[in-house]
Specification:
- The protein is mostly helical.
- The chain has one domain: Fumarate Reductase Cytochrome B subunit.
- It is built from 4 helices and 2 strands; from the N terminus they run αααββα.
- Strand 1 and strand 2 form a beta hairpin.
- Helix 1 packs antiparallel against helix 2 and helix 2 packs across helix 3.
- The longest helix is centred in the last third of the chain and has 36 residues.
- The chain is elongated, with a radius of gyration of 18 Å.
- The chain starts with 13 loop residues before the first helix and ends in a 10-residue tail after the last helix.
């Protein structure tokens, strides 16, 4: 299996595709779980969902680091011809998404640490507190995780809308570059 791009390739590598789709699924599922758990009454299920959400956040953070490293060491396919404004919007969207791939889980980890709820990955690996416990800090951080997550959701929708526009309107094969 060749994971490296040649200079004439118009598709992403299989590894880039795998990382893209794993991260996409993890983010969507984590977002949906996050929306559901915050409105639930206190219960064993709610506590389990909070723990699962934290584990997903750490996995998203790890996948994001691997994906960024892969992206920095492997040239993507050439951009398809498009108006300059569309290229700028696409680049800005990607930069913001990558930023949020890190900022959102780190903010969640910081909030959890400040609130005095440690992250114990998969219930067996305690991670260090990201910040010291502090009720005041927890209250200040609490809304930011949600704001970052909702901002990421909007950018994901912009990303998907752009891909669908390329597929159904431009018919330029852009989506096929990210399918195996």
């Amino acid at each position: 299996m060749n994971l490296h791009l040649s200079s004439g390739t118009h598709r992403y590598t299989r590894m880039a595709m795998l990382l893209h789709w794993l991260l996409a699924v993890a983010i969507v599922v984590s977002f949906v779980v996050g929306l559901q758990m915050v409105d639930m009454k206190m219960s064993v299920l709610r506590l389990k969902l909070f723990n699962w959400h934290k584990w997903a956040g750490i996995c998203i953070l790890t996948l994001s680091a691997v994906r960024l490293l892969w992206r920095l060491t492997h040239q993507p396919p050439a951009e398809l011809p498009a108006p300059r404004w569309q290229q700028r919007v696409a680049r800005a969207t990607h930069v913001l998404l990558y930023t949020l791939f890190f900022a959102t889980p780190l903010m969640g980890w910081a909030y959890s640490s400040a609130a005095g709820f440690p992250v114990v990955l998969f219930g067996v690996l305690p991670l260090p507190d990201f910040v010291s416990p502090s009720k005041e800090l927890a209250e200040a951080l609490k809304p930011w995780h949600g704001v970052l997550a909702k901002t990421m959701a909007v950018l994901v929708l912009v990303h998907v809308a752009g891909a669908l526009k390329h597929h159904f309107i431009d018919r330029d094969g852009l989506i096929r570059r990210m399918w195996s």
